Task: inverse folding
C-alpha cells in the first residue's frame, strides 16, 4: 500500500516532511515529489501549487506515475458555515466546483454533461478519520467542500455558494483532486483546517493562520497514515 499525501502550498506539506523518514526527492512533470516512510507505510508527498489545474495534474501523477493506492489531501480552507472557526478541522463528505457554470445552457450550477455536481469521498477513509479523531479526542467536522479557482473574500459570494451548494468550507483544489481519484477508482480523503472566514478579512487571516492551520491538518493526516498502515 502506497499512500499519496497532497497539499497545495509548501506550507501545507512542510509539517509532513519534518516528520517522515528516508525522504527521497524526485522531480517529475515539473514538480517535486517526496518518497518517504512513515510508521512503516510508504508515502509520496507533494504540493501541487494552487488551484484546480495544478492539483489535478499532481493527483494524476501520484496515481499513474508513483502508483499510489490511496490519496489523502491536507491543507487549509475558508469557512462558509459560521460554526467553523479558525483551526477547526473539516473533512469533505462530498465536493463540488462552485465556479463551473454553464447555467446559460440550462444546466444546474456546477454541472457539465457527463460530469457530476458532487464527488463523494471514500467511506472507509472517513471511518478511519472518525476513529482517529475519537481515539485522540480531536474535534473533526464533516461537511460539503466547495472548490474553485478564486480566493474568496466576500460575504456575498460566500452566501451564494452556501445557498447554491450547501457548502460548509471553500478552497481551491479538493474537487479537482476528487475528480481524478474518482475517475481512476482511487479512494481519497480531503481534510482542511480553517484559516479564514472567506470574508473581508480573509487574505489577512489567511496569511496569519496558514502555517498554524496547515500543521493542524498535517498532524491529523499523519495519524491517519498510522491507522491506514495497520489495516493494509
Ligand atoms: N483557502 C483558504 N481560504 C480560502 C478562501 N477564502 N477562498 C478560497 N480558498 C481558500
Result:
Amino acid at each position: 500500500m502506497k499512500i499519496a499525501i497532497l497539499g497545495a502550498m509548501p506550507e501545507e506539506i512542510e509539517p509532513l516532511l519534518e516528520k517522515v523518514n528516508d525522504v527521497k526527492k524526485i522531480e517529475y512533470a515539473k514538480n517535486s515529489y517526496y518518497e518517504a516512510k512513515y510508521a512503516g507505510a510508504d508515502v509520496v508527498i507533494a504540493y501541487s501549487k494552487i488551484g484546480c489545474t495544478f492539483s489535478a495534474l499532481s493527483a494524476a501523477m501520484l496515481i499513474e506515475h508513483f502508483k499510489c493506492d490511496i490519496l489523502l489531501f491536507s491543507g487549509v480552507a475558508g469557512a462558509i458555515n459560521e460554526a467553523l472557526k479558525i483551526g477547526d478541522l473539516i473533512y469533505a463528505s462530498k465536493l463540488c466546483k462552485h465556479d463551473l457554470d454553464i447555467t446559460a445552457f440550462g444546466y444546474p450550477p456546477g454541472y457539465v454533461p457527463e460530469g457530476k455536481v458532487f464527488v463523494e469521498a471514500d467511506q472507509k477513509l472517513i471511518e478511519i478519520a472518525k476513529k482517529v479523531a475519537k481515539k485522540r479526542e480531536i474535534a473533526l467536522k464533516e461537511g460539503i467542500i466547495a472548490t474553485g479557482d478564486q480566493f474568496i473574500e466576500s460575504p456575498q459570494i460566500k452566501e451564494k455558494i452556501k445557498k447554491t451548494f450547501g457548502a460548509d468550507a471553500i478552497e481551491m483544489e479538493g474537487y479537482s483532486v476528487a475528480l481524478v481519484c474518482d475517475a481512476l477508482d482511487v479512494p481519497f480523503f480531503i481534510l482542511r483546517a480553517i484559516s479564514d472566514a472567506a470574508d473581508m478579512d480573509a487574505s489577512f487571516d489567511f496569511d496569519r493562520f496558514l502555517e498554524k492551520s496547515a500543521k493542524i491538518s498535517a498532524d491529523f493526516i499523519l495519524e491517519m497514515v498510522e491507522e491506514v498502515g495497520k489495516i493494509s
